[in-house]
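hey
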């Protein structure tokens, strides 16, 4: 890929769907972000960070959420007002419909059974998918609001209050 004169990621965000163990993902993202930033900085005669934040990730544990995340990533340029999904050059969307060059598309396409079903799934998108969205209550240090985490913990403790848990030996 050529490195453009302007950053590809003006918002500092890139959306990727990666299948990898968490420790491998951390190394991968450090290499990708660092390599891109160094290459861009060299070409643009600048120094310093290019990405304002550390990457965020979330697990994708089932096929239904996987296809939701893939559609969310593909629709993001349209949501951001950059380009229609099918016209955005930095997306893997076309690779799902044509011959893939960079992306591994077979697993997702097998879920749909055909590229036409994949295309229809994307055309039916109303913008309502929420996937690690910046508008969600998640952030880099707290993956969910405290009150939600507290409710989940209390549910898992079968009614044992958190204060009672603190008093246990």
């Amino acid at each position: 890929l050529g490195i453009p004169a302007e950053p590809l990621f003006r918002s500092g965000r890139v959306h990727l769907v990666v299948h990898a163990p968490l420790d491998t993902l951390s190394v991968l993202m450090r290499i990708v972000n660092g390599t891109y930033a160094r290459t861009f900085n060299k070409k643009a005669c600048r120094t310093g960070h290019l990405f304002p934040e550390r990457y965020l990730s979330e697990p994708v544990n089932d096929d239904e959420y996987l296809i939701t995340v893939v559609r969310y990533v593909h629709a993001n340029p349209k949501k951001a007002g950059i380009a229609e999904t099918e016209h955005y050059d930095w997306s893997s969307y076309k690779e799902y419909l044509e011959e893939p060059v960079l992306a591994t598309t077979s697993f997702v396409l097998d879920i749909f059974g055909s590229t036409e079903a994949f295309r229809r799934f994307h055309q039916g998108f109303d913008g309502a998918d929420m996937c690690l969205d910046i508008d969600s209550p998640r952030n880099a240090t707290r993956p969910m609001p405290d009150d939600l985490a507290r409710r989940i913990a209390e549910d898992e403790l079968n009614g044992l209050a958190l204060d009672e848990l603190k008093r246990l030996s």
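The two ends are 57 Å apart (CA to CA). Residues 113 and 136 are 32 Å apart (CA to CA).
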